[in-house]
Write a structure and sequence with these properties.
Number of domains: 1
CATH topology: sialyltransferase cstii, chain A
Strand content: 5-15%
Structural class: alpha/beta
Helix content: 25-40%
CATH superfamily: Glycosyl transferase family 29
CATH class: Alpha Beta
Radius of gyration: 16 Å
Order of helices and strands: HEHEHEHHEHHEHE
Strand order of the largest sheet: 1-2-3-4
Distance between the termini: 22 Å
Number of strands: 6
Length: 176
């Protein structure tokens, strides 16, 4: 079964930033979405703003109180209305652990683990593919998108391994 089909079988599907493109294959990405997570400065293309989702999460250090320019979020608010921001304390905890800002993906995974109290209720895809020896594509939606130096990817990989031992399920790969 293709990864996209596995993703779409879940009750809640969370996607990040530009999660799909004309070039991305539905078999890799699937099509369902319930929650969309976006970086504060990510300007969503119209194709994403037209997708119906239950909630949008703005990632980062509780940007609800710190973001001075909401222009990138304005259309999201107008089209979708239901917007959350990630908790500042959670972001700060991850910065202490990683010695760097966490990626949106890791931040949301940790938030869900904190809310539910367990990692084994989660299945994820698209994390850490750039650590493979083959240097596989970093993003399913764009082969041109590269991992930024802002995040501590090795530290994030260690946390993912810990959560994997606690039951976090990787739909698309094992991380080594």
């Amino acid at each position: 079964m293709a990864v996209g089909e596995l993703i779409d079988k879940h009750a809640v599907v969370i996607r990040f930033n530009n999660y799909c493109s004309e070039k991305s294959l539905q078999k890799n990405c699937g099509k369902n979405i319930n929650i969309w997570v976006k970086s504060p400065d990510f300007y969503a293309p119209d194709k994403l703003l037209g997708v119906d989702v239950g909630w949008t999460i703005i990632s980062g250090p509780d940007v609800c109180y710190t973001m001075s320019d909401w222009s990138s979020v304005k259309l999201t608010l107008e089209k979708r209305g239901k917007v959350l921001t990630t908790p500042l304390g959670l972001w700060q905890d991850l910065v202490k652990i990683l010695k760097a800002p966490p990626s949106a993906g890791l931040l949301v995974v940790m938030w869900i683990i904190q809310i539910t109290g367990k990692a084994d209720s989660l299945s994820i895809a698209g994390f850490q593919s750039f650590f493979n020896d083959k240097q596989e594509q970093y993003h399913y939606s764009s082969s041109a998108h590269k991992a930024g130096a802002r995040h501590n990817w090795k530290g994030e990989k260690k946390l993912l391994k810990i959560w994997q031992k606690e039951g976090l399920n990787f739909l698309d790969r094992e991380i080594s």
